[in-house]
Amino acid sequence: MTSRFLPLGLLVMLAACGNRYEYSRASFNGPLQCAPYARERTGLKLSGSAASWWGQSSGRYAHTHTPRPGEVLVFRATSRVPSGHVSIVRRQVSDRTILVDHANWEPGRIDHAVPVTDVSARNDWTLVRVWWAPVHGLGKRAYPTYGFISSHDSDDAS
């Protein structure tokens, strides 16, 4: 009798080991999105997917690889973030760490003062790791970025 229930017991135990913070891709497609949040907060006149902002902003807004408060860090589209992502720089903490505000990195949430660390070989902010609240630390994955868009017109940039 006991051997009949052993497989069921093992399945229940394995299910309990699952990561309760795994999200389906669909959970990132709710009403709260990073691009509209960043547009509202910065005044950038850009639309569409977050990854498209870098190309759209060319010639309109200054591009840089040095973070400054109020600038937007633009993440490239990847299999993990198919539409890319945008975050607003709050402040720089060190040469390789900034704090950002962003929406929907964790589905349905707006997060403030989130650490983002530059892990690029050239220290040019083209590869970053982002704080992941469910694990109370930087996420394991590194994400490629284009750089930062300034909310100033390209003519105003120094």
From TrEMBL:
The organism's superkingdom is given as Bacteria
InterPro entries noted in UniProt? CHAP_dom (IPR007921), Papain-like_cys_pep_sf (IPR038765)
Peptidase C51 domain ranges (all copies)? 9-129
The protein in question is named CHAP domain-containing protein
Q: Cite the Pfam families for this sequence.
A: CHAP
Q: What does the record give as the organism's lineage?
A: Bacteria, Pseudomonadati, Pseudomonadota, Alphaproteobacteria, Acetobacterales
